[in-house]
From TrEMBL:
It comes from the Bacteria. NCBIfam families: PRK14186.1 (NF010783), PRK14188.1 (NF010785). Catalyzes the oxidation of 5,10-methylenetetrahydrofolate to 5,10-methenyltetrahydrofolate and then the hydrolysis of 5,10-methenyltetrahydrofolate to 10-formyltetrahydrofolate. Homodimer. Gene3D superfamilies: Leucine Dehydrogenase, chain A, domain 1, NAD(P)-binding Rossmann-like Domain. Coiled coil: none annotated. Pfam families: THF_DHG_CYH (PF00763), THF_DHG_CYH_C (PF02882). Belongs to the tetrahydrofolate dehydrogenase/cyclohydrolase family. NADP(+) binds at G165, R166, S167, I231. This is Bifunctional protein FolD. Residues 6-120 form the Tetrahydrofolate dehydrogenase/cyclohydrolase catalytic domain. The keyword NADP applies. PANTHER family: C-1-TETRAHYDROFOLATE SYNTHASE, CYTOPLASMIC, C-1-TETRAHYDROFOLATE SYNTHASE, CYTOPLASMIC-RELATED.
């Protein structure tokens, strides 16, 4: 079987081009989409993520604001900043980079962001709206996964999808998005019995569990499409490298399409963060808002 390597970089470029056009239209109408990014502490990875997000925002014409706060900041100070950003009509999206220092409760911070400015899609109102099928801001990585699937398969209705992992960040929201696309959805997790057998029934497998190369060829039905969300750093042959939750080389001969790691799902996350910022700007200005997933 000639498997198709799903190019997340190219897909993200297409999404960002659409975002750039939408930003230009909004700006001409007097609305300049703006994303506020809050970074607490000195975590090196977080600094890289924030730099990439700010760079992408500039590329598509989104104004960005950076707020860099010390590691020992009091939770009340952080919440005060969020309240200020909530009240600022020129700020459309608020993103607090995780993880946060231990003295700050992450759940409280997420719930402090107004739902219409929650471009991560993690606020309980957005989570509930997603489950109910409402047109809300949805988590970026799961929405990116759905976009990749629709690019490969077109119509998803009637497909059987297995999601490995039940996290609030990926597993649960991507299952809800797949249900909205009229898939039959099975969630596989650490308590599932014979997870491999459940996965072998799937037309679509989405792996988001955080265990390097856990999914091997015995888990995959011939011709299935595999979306690998995992990003795991391992030491191999004396060097460090990134691998997914799927054993890419072992699975490749029997799938019809698969995302690599890196270069698959990763680029989609920032692309859909930019798109959520534009959708948030539209929501807050009572302008028409596209559905969460785009084709």
């Amino acid at each position: 079987m000639n498997a198709k390597r799903i190019d997340g970089v190219a897909a993200a470029t297409r999404v960002l081009q659409t975002v750039r056009q939408d930003v230009a239209e909004l700006t001409q109408s007097g609305v300049q989409p703006c994303l506020a990014v809050v970074l607490v502490g000195d975590d090196p990875a977080s600094h890289v993520y924030v730099r990439n997000k700010v760079q992408r925002a500039a590329e598509v014409g989104i104004r960005s604001l950076e707020h860099r706060l010390p590691t020992d900041i009091d939770a009340r100070e952080l919440l005060s900043l969020i309240n200020t950003l909530n009240a600022d009509p020129t700020v459309h999206g608020i993103l607090v980079q995780m993880p946060l220092p231990p003295q700050i409760d992450e759940a409280s911070v997420i719930q402090a962001i107004r739902p219409e400015k929650d471009v991560d899609g993690f606020h309980r109102e957005n989570v509930g709206g997603l489950v109910l099928g409402q047109n809300v801001l949805t988590p970026c990585t799961p929405t990116g996964c759905l976009y990749l699937l629709e690019q490969v398969l077109g119509e998803l209705s009637g497909k059987h999808a297995v999601v490995i992992g039940r996290s609030n960040i990926v597993g649960k929201p991507v299952a809800s998005l797949l249900l909205q696309a009229h898939c039959s959805v099975t969630l596989v997790h650490s308590r599932s019995k014979d997870a491999a057998a459940l996965c072998r029934q799937a037309d679509i497998v989405i792996a988001a569990v955080g265990r390097p190369r856990m999914v091997n060829a015995e888990w995959i039905k011939p011709g299935a499409v595999v979306i690998d969300v995992g990003i795991n750093r391992i030491e191999e042959n004396g060097r460090s490298r990134l691998v997914g939750d799927v054993d890419y080389d072992a699975v490749l001969p029997q799938v019809s399409a698969i995302t690599p790691v890196p270069g698959g799902v990763g680029p989609m996350t920032i692309a859909f963060l930019m798109r959520n910022t534009v959708r948030a700007a539209r929501l807050q200005n009572s302008l028409p808002v596209q559905p969460a997933a785009i084709r």
